[in-house]
Amino acid sequence: MSKKNYAGIPDKYARLDDAKVVLIPVPYDGTSTWGKGADKGPDAFLEASENMELFDIETRTEVYKKGVYLAPPVTENSSPEKMVEAVHKTVKNYIKQEKFVTIFGGEHSISIGTIRAFNESFEDLTVVQIDAHADLRPEYEGTTCNHACAVHEASKKTNLIQVGIRSMDISELDHMDENQVYWAHDLYEDWMDDAIGQMTPNVFITIDLDAFDPSIMPSTGTPEPGGIFWYETLEFLKLMFKKKNVVGFDIVELNPNENEKSSDFLAAKLYYKMLSYKFRYLNRNEEDEDDE
Ligand SMILES: [Mn+2]
After folding, report:
1. Is residue 260 part of a domain?
2. Residue 207 alpha carbon to ligand 1 centre in Å
């Protein structure tokens, strides 16, 4: 894991004390079932971030000046349960310091710990899961902390909204609220306002990169055809940052391939876009409808 600043930003923007944002890498790949390599995700993401322009054209901002502290990575991997506990503890520690906490995985099981920490810290939490897979199994291969179980706990303890889903086991229907599922095959219709309407004020976003179409995001553990694309995803994210109090987010399942760098760049740009939206729309709320 590199010891450099996030995106090569100057030291004065990278110190914990002054930074508004904390970025926690979790290079964990303990339970993945098919394509291995999500443990290499954070390094590939950080390397791509160093080669990215830091002026966001759309928001006309340089959000890194809010300060981004790159935390030491969470490397606990002795068991899936211990990893989830370590992520939970680390995330909670930075939330308590009133930072905007973001996490980069690693496989999706890391989100069990991140969501638990946010759910304990923010009232009446909505979790928006953008993912190809339902990830609702209560247990898989002997553990409740498998990537296939990433949002099972969230489905019981938070207001879960699932977007982009196109792969699941029939047993997962028992744990699914289909009124709050936006299937990939339905996303050509108007759907964003309906989804926003189902959200409580506090929103946490978990993005499994396999939600994206494999044509633009091939480097992921389990690519599924028929995924979402770049600008529609940005439109939905922007809407959430405008209308809701997005309290944090994680991005998971980058499985880098050294011959295919565009996925690393997509992840890097996605992360920076989300920060740009967060601070551009920071003081907005539902009453503040006017847009420039
Ligand atoms: Mn997932």
Report:
1. yes
2. 8
